[in-house]
Task: structure prediction
Amino acid sequence: MRATTARTAPVTRFDARFGPASQVLELVNAGWFDYNGLQASVQKRFSNNYQFRLSYTYSRSRGTVGAPGATDQILWATVDPTTRITDLHMDDRASLGDQDRPHILSFSGSVRVPHTGGLNLSGVYQYNSGTPFTLTDSTTDPNRNGLFEEPLPAGTYGGAATNPNAIAVVNDGGFNGARGPDFSLLSLRGAYRFKLPGNGNRHLMAYVDLFNVTNRANYNNPVSTVGPVTSADRRDAATFLILRSIRNGGPTRTAQFNIRYDF
Result:
C-alpha cells in the first residue's frame, strides 16, 4: 500500500513471508473470456469473365484477460489497510478484449477484360475496426496499490494540440475504453498474357501490382511504454495519443512490375 495517492509516496509491503521484496507474483485461476461472432460470405465463381468473394465478420470479445488463454498480471488489486485483506477487483477488469474488432470486411475479385486479347484485372480490399486500449494517468495513484494502472473516466481526450500526429478519442471509461485507428488497404493488379509463336504452351505474362492504392497510413494504437499496462498515459505528454508507428511497417503506395515466361 502506498502511504498516500502521491506518485512518489513510499510503498509498504504487508506480507511478512516475503519481507521487503519489491514484487511477488502468484498464479490464480481467476480469468474468463467470451467471444461472439457472426461470419458471412458471398462468392461468385468465375463465369462471364469475372469472379469475386465478399466476406464479413461482426464480433464482440470481452473478458477479464486481454485474450483467450492469456496469463495477465492483476495490477488493480488493493489491500485493506486495517484487515490487510486483498481484493482482486476482477469485475472492474471486465472489458473488451485487446484484439476486439467489431467489423472485419474483405473483398477480392478479378475480371478478364473482353476484346483485349489477354488483359486481366484483379484487386483485394480489406477493412478492420481499430482495437481497444486503455487511457491512464500515472500522475497519482488513486487506489494506493503501488501501481499506476487506473483507467481514466469516460470522456473525450486529445493529445498535444501542437503535434499534428495527435488524435482525439472517445473513452467509455474502464480498461480498454478507447479504440484506436481503423485499418483500410486496397491493392490492385493488372496482368496481360502474350501468346508466343510456336509451341502452344509458351506464354509471356506481364504484371503490374499496385499496393496501398490510396496511400493510406494505417497506424498502430497510440500507446506508450510508461506504466505497468499497455496504455496511453496522460502524464507523458510527449507520447499521449500521438500516432508514432505504422501497422506492420507499411506499405506506402508501392508499384512493382513482373514478367513470367511459361513454357
About this structure: The CA atoms of residues 106 and 146 lie 45 Å apart.
